[in-house]
Amino acid sequence: MTAYDDLMSFTRDTMALGQVAGRLGWDQETVMPRGAAPQRAEEMAAMESVLHARRTDPRVGDWLAAVDEKTLDNVGRANIREIRRSFDRASKVPATLAARIARVTSEAQGIWAEARAANDVSAFLPTLSDVIMLKREEGQALAAGGNVYDAMLQDYEPGATGADIEAMFAAMRPVLSDLRAAVRDSAAAPKRLEGQFDESTQMKLTRLLARTFGYDMSHGRVDKAVHPFSSGSGLDVRITTRTNPADPFNCFYSTIHEVGHASYEQNIDRAHLLTPLGSGASMGVHESQSRIYENQIGRSRAFTGWLFGQMKDAFGDFGIADEHAFYGAVNRVNDGYIRTEADELQYNLHVLLRFDLERALMQGDLLVSELEAAWNDRFEADFGYPVDKPSNGVLQDVHWSVGLFGYFPTYSLGNVYAGCLNEAMRTALPDLDADLAQGDTSAATGWLRENVQRHGGLMLPRDVIETASAQKVSEAPLLDYLNTKFSVLYRI
Fold first, then answer.
1. Both 185 and 125 in a single domain?
2. Active-site residues: which are they?
């Protein structure tokens, strides 16, 4: 056994334990009894203590020092890169702090859920203050005198900086705001979907959609949760969705979105299973898959034509006359508060708001006591109407309760990446719409599997996108796509 072999054997066991911890999180969100939350917090803290001890085990440092990278192939060198990055980061965080964060964020998730249900911000803010205090402490340890928020970003988008993201978002915001204003002034708004849609029928159709987009149900499952998510990698990748009798699109497009995440994990080269390369390159690249599945493919005129027929078969006459009107209903720009339910045009404005606020919180420029007012002021400035209740405002997302600071900007980075990929995919597959009109996504999902998904974490995030799209990452393709789509749809 060489040092590399010993290191990879140890790492595989660590990765397997990480999957077990992830399964505890899936259980907590789907079927765990409400009263189990205090015990689950202790279980999560115990698992994090074990994982942190393994990630910082001195033998990892010894093995890394002993490995001769010149003897390794590209896969071996990439594994070493990722193990070294993980070891260096974990070694900077005290084990007691890692366990405290795991315990507090597990408890905070339940407190947030109860506060959200009661629309009681005051019930959550003390806990949020504790989470922020702990995450700042972690960020300071990781930054080692550098920028705390930039250090946090590395957990989700290695290589990104807050300044770079701020510059990209600054270029996007006026274009999106102007297009949104033009849409709101247009007299050509598509018809809105109305009526009641049986929730069990929604779930039957949503499972069909999951399979249509290539989700392997023999290695996954679809359940319901308050907040849709994807969990796991390799041979066990699970997704959740949610239903609303008045809004089946929420169910269908949440499912397609999560299938994008899940398919990425399912399609990674099996040789990378339970290694550092056996999951997505970053959350931004992950979001590129979920967003291109959901939007550029799933909301396309061609695919919605097929979906219209499926909905007629499932629900009968539901008040939309034809495929053209259905395409408009799917892509209608609606006033609303909820990020996960936002249309393509307005979605990024929701993300930009959160990025600015969480960055200010981490840098100490915004107090937790000021957060709700800051959220409400920014929302009204960006969207033109006030927040009506906290569950539609500062309490709507789970992310801050579980300590995911630095995660939000990856949603819009994913949209930017998806814009680049879509441009390249459409060039490579000029007849794609003919397939999508038949409900056949295999050419699109196959292109993404070959050019993005199979590589897993082999390449750095931007390298994945730039190699697949043969262009530098830029917000321009996304903005061009949105301008073209909504200008035609709203006759601007």
1. no
2. 258
pTM: 0.93
Give the DSSP letter string of 280-303: -S-HHHHHHHHHIIIIIITTSHHH
Query: Crossing angle for the helix pair 344-363 and 162-185, nearest 10 degrees?
Result: 140
Query: What's the CA gap between 155 and 362, in Å, rounded?
Result: 15
Phi and psi at 238, nearest 5°, equal -110, 150
pLDDT in tens, 31-68: 999 899 899 989 998 998 999 999 999 999 999 999 99
Q: Does residue 73 sit in the same domain as residue 178?
A: no
CATH number at residue 196: 1.10.1370.30
State the Cα–Cα distance between residues 349 and 176, nearest whole angstrom.
8
Q: How far apart are CA 38 and CA 111, in angstroms?
A: 11
In the beta sheet, which residues pair with residue 238? 231
Strands 236-241 and 222-224: parallel
352 shares a domain with 476: yes
Tokens at 329, concatenated: 């209903």
Distance CA 250, CA 244 (A): 7
83 plus 198 within the same structural domain = no
Domain of 405?
162-489
The pair of structure tokens assigned to 82 is 């990722």
Indicate the residue among 122, 146, 170 that finishes a domain: 146
How many residues are given for the chain?
Answer: 492
Report pLDDT digits (tens) over 271-306: 999 999 999 999 999 999 999 999 999 999 999 999
Query: 282 and 400 share a domain?
Result: yes
Quick one: which H or E segment has residue 65? helix 58-66
Type of residue numbered 200? S
Q: Exposed, middle or buried: residue 69 (CB in 10 Å: 0-12, 13-18, 19+)?
A: exposed
pLDDT in tens, 62-101: 999 999 999 999 999 999 999 999 999 999 999 999 999 9
Question: What number of CA atoms fall less than 13 Å from residue 131's CA on the CB side?
Answer: 26
Residue 383 covered by a domain: yes
Same domain, 414 and 288: yes
Residue 151 domain-assigned? no
Are residues 189 and 76 located together in one domain of the fold? no
Q: Quote the CA–CA distance of 442 and 446 in Å, as a whole number.
A: 6
Taking the CA atoms of 25, 27, 33 and 39 in sequence, report the sign of the dihedral they define.
negative
Number of domains in the chain: 2
In a domain, 440, yes or no: yes
Q: Is residue 48 located within the same domain as residue 187?
A: no
Residue with the two structure tokens 């249900």: 117
- Domain termination site, one of 119, 146, 173: 146
| Residue whose structure tokens are 């969705």 | 241
Residue 175 lies in a domain: yes
Q: How far apart are CA 331 and CA 338, in angstroms?
A: 16
What whole-number distance in Å separates Cα of residue 147 and Cα of residue 266?
A: 35
What is the rounded distance in angstroms from the CA atom of residue 137 to the CA atom of residue 173?
Answer: 31
254, 45 contact by CB (below 8 A): no
